[in-house]
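Weekly modeling sync, notes
Attendees: AB, CL, MP (scribe)

Item 1: holo prediction request
CL wants a bound-state model with DQA before deciding which constructs to order. AB pointed out that an apo prediction alone won't tell us much about the pocket. Agreed to run with the ligand included and paste results into these notes for async review.

Input as submitted:
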Amino acid sequence: MELLIVNGPNLNLLGLREPSIYGAETLNSIEVALQKKAEKEGVVLESFQSNSEGAMVDCIHNALGKVDGILINAGAYTHTSIALRDALLATGIPYVEVHLSNTFAREEFRHKSLLADCAIGVVSGFGGRSYELAFDGILAHLKTGE
Ligand code: DQA
């Protein structure tokens, strides 16, 4: 089983960036924790981060035929990007939308997601743990089909 984590704009600054909202954990520490989890489960885990929408689209395309599931935190592109939605739908790879913060408890423009309605599920509001919950969720889905 192979999973891909895709992180979008500004998530490279986790740890520095608005810690009262996003916490003190860095993206690297989140990825290290997920790698440990993946090793225990016998899952191969690839990580990708970019601040560029096109690079994220390319990454999703490159996952075709290779990856069984995607965890995606598209950052602000969650709320704007038809291109990312189309890329995810084009590949047909099941995905879970992830957010550190509870986007529904924030500004109204963050309440809308262009990815959520086609996702297996959405995990939002648990800080770095959102990724672990999403990992468990997608793995269970891929194993059971539920
Ligand atoms: C975020 C929420 C988005 O609204 C925001 O633009 C981000 C981070 C989150 O993980 O909470 O960059 O995706």
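Recorded for review: The pocket of DQA is lined by residues 10, 73, 75-76, 78, 99-101, 103, 110 (CB under 6 Å).
Action items: CL to compare against the apo run; MP to circulate these notes.
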